Amino acid sequence: MVRLRLSCYQSNDTLEVQLMEEVEKAKLLIGKYIYGYNDDTPEKIVGKLLIEKNQTLAVAESCTGGYVSHLITSVPGSSTYYIGSTISYANEVKTRFLGVSPAVIAEKGAVSEEVAKAMAEGVRSTLGSTWAISTTGIAGPGGGTAEKPVGTVWIGLAGPNVLIAKKFQFGNDRLRNIQITAISAFSMLRKEILGLAD
C-alpha cells in the first residue's frame, strides 16, 4: 500500500482548485492503482463493492489465523455481505471442513497453489458465498525451507467463473507478513470484482 498525499499550506479557493487539478492529473497517470481516498481502507472498499453488487464473501484462513476476518468485521455493516470463515490452521481442518484432498497436501504441501485454490473453493461451496478468499503460507520466523522460504504465501480466490491463486514472497517479519497477506487478498478480490485482474 502506498499513501499519496497532496497538500497546500494556505486555504483559499484558488489553491483548492489547483489541488483538485493535480489530483485529476495523478488519476490519469495511476488511476488503475487507486483503491480509495482519505480514510478508505482495502476492507472498506471491498465491503462497499460487495454491498453495491449484492454479493457475499467467505474466507478460509491458515497463515493469517483470522486476521482477514477480523479486518472484515471491523467495518460497520459487514454483516450485510460477510458470511463467515474457517480458520484452517491444521491440515486436518483443511481436509475435514474444506474438502482439501489429503493427497494434494501430501504431494504439493499445504503452502501451494493447489491447496489455496481448494481452500477458497471449499469455503465458498460450504458457506454458499458469491466470493471466497483463502490464505496459506509461512508467516515465520521459522518453518521455511529452501524451496518455500519464510514469507512464502499463496492467496486463493474463488468466485463466479473464477478460481485462481497467486504466489507472494514477503519478508521475515511474522506480523507484517500477516498484515500484507490480508491487504493483498483484498486487493485481489477488488480487482476481480471490478474486472481489473492482471
Can you tell me about this structure?
By secondary structure, the chain is α/β, with parallel strands linked by helices. 44% of the residues lie in helices and 17% in strands. The chain contains seven helices and five strands; from the N terminus they run ααβαβαααβββα. Strands 2-1-3-4-5 form a five-stranded mixed sheet, sandwiched between helices. Strand 1 (57-61), helix 3 and strand 2 (82-87) form a beta-alpha-beta unit. Helix 2 (42-52) packs parallel to helix 7. It is globular, with a radius of gyration of 19 Å.
Record the SSE blueprint.
Blueprint: H1 13-30, H2 42-52, E1 57-61, H3 67-73, E2 82-87, H4 91-98, H5 102-108, H6 113-127, E3 131-137, E4 152-159, E5 162-169, H7 174-194
Parallel strand pairs: 1-2, 1-3
Antiparallel strand pairs: 3-4, 4-5
Helix pairs in contact: 2-7
Short description:
The chain has 198 residues and is an alpha/beta fold.
Mean pLDDT: 94
Topology as a string of helices (H) and strands (E): HHEHEHHHEEEH
Query: Radius of gyration over alpha carbons?
Result: 19 Å
- Mass-distribution shape: globular
How many helical stretches?
A: 7
Major beta sheet, strand line-up: 2-1-3-4-5
- Using the coordinates shown, work out and report the CATH topology of the largest domain: Maf protein
CATH class of the largest domain: Alpha Beta
Distance between the termini: 17 Å
